[in-house]
Amino acid sequence: MDVYFYTKLVFKDMAVLKISKNISFKEGTHSDTATRRRMKNEPNEDQLKAMKTVAKKVFEPLRENFGEPIRVNSFFRSIALNKAIGGSRTSQHCAGEAIDIDATNGITNKKLFDYIKKNLDFDQLIWEFGTDKNPDWIHVSYKSTKENRNRVLKAVAEGNPVYEVIEGGKEVAEPEVDISKKKSRKGTVTVKTYLNVRKKPTKDAKVVGKLENAKKVKIISEEPGWYQIKSDKQSGWVSADYIKLKSTKPTSDPEL
């Protein structure tokens, strides 16, 4: 390999180690599903540029205001990864334009949500499930000053549709849609013992219930590697690895 070309590659790799001051390249591209399936999840130049814009315009101002770490649940998703988790083909995560975040150290997700809504420019801001007092996590996207819709939505597990418009924002063309969150899907638990039901779609989240093998569940939402389910009196998040889906035709959902 040409020495000059090799040197350029090395310095390019070094340059992308940080998306921003408080988001590493590893954090911005991490996915449990991609790791398990050994899938490549790396942005191209345009996608990386978009990620840096989201970080600069939304994440870093938020981080600076609260002065506490903010967890990145999901940022960039390759097309292959997005397909593997059942995401929309027009998902803004695939363009590097959307990030899912979670508050830490006593700061609530509601405080993050309210600050973004009142002080920052954005395309879509979504109150993701939870309660009327606090969302489970926050989805926020950013395109550009001209393209941002300032659209505010709320995801409701039993809602129809799931995504309720709180503020319509600017009058722009509606996003293309194509995945199933409006209409629930069905699945079956496939484990040797039992499956933990967790409060949030993370491995360290509180266990709120357990499901036995062969238990039928209704899937009402999903995140990378996780399904939000409801079964009898139990509801919460479970690992997608242990749910066998019943084949259904896809329905529509907002661009996320």
Give an overview of the whole structure.
There is one protein chain. This protein has 256 residues and is of the alpha+beta class. It folds into 2 domains: 3-167, Muramoyl-pentapeptide Carboxypeptidase, domain 2, CATH 3.30.1380.10; 185-245, SH3 type barrels, CATH 2.30.30.40. It is built from 6 helices and 15 strands. A hairpin with an 8-residue loop joins β5 and β6 (137-141). The termini are far apart.
Total strands: the figure is 15
Low-confidence stretches: 3-11, 172-182, 248-255
CATH fold description of the largest domain: Muramoyl-pentapeptide Carboxypeptidase, domain 2
Name the structural class. Answer: alpha+beta
- In whole angstroms, the N-to-C terminal distance is 41 Å
**Rg, Å, rounded:** 19 Å
Q: What descriptors fit this protein?
A:
256 residues, alpha+beta, Muramoyl-pentapeptide Carboxypeptidase, domain 2, SH3 type barrels, 2 domains, 5-stranded antiparallel beta sheet, 6 helices, globular, disordered N terminus, disordered C terminus
Annotate the secondary structure layout.
Blueprint: H1 3-15, E1 18-20, E2 23-24, H2 25-29, H3 32-37, H4 45-66, E3 70-74, H5 79-84, E4 98-103, H6 109-119, E5 124-128, E6 137-141, E7 151-155, E8 163-167, E9 185-189, E10 194-198, E11 207-212, E12 216-223, E13 226-231, E14 234-239, E15 243-245
Parallel strand pairs: 5-7
Antiparallel strand pairs: 1-2, 3-4, 4-6, 5-6, 7-8, 9-12, 9-15, 10-11, 12-13, 13-14
